[in-house]
Specification:
Elements: H1 2-14, H2 20-49, H3 53-87, H4 93-125
Helix pairs in contact: 2-3, 3-4
Amino acid sequence: METNKIQILQLSQQGHRRPLLFRLTNRVTIFLTLLSGSLILFYITGNYQQFLDSDQHLILSCCAVSGIGLSLFSFFSFAESVYYLLVTGEKIRWIFMLHAITLFFICFGAVAMTLAIRAIIFLSAGIPE
């Protein structure tokens, strides 16, 4: 237990910084996750507040676009974390493993969310005559 604390302290003192591309894709992934979550909450609130159909459609369309972006960026970030998992030393390998697992589930959830939102948009359009 003590050796793990010492290793973590040594890593923080040595100033190991993640590469710029890795930090950027992670920040974009976090931003798009929060944006998608807020748009979903806005849509749910709009159902109870009886928003107009055009407003609901706009919210769903924005959420679908952010879901597509989220799935792409989380996949790229997942690929980066797998790369750094293979390249880095033993000391910080578990961080990248945890990060890769989390991003895999985020990517899977974003794809499922986007498909569900597109299904809602399709069903709400109705049958054309």
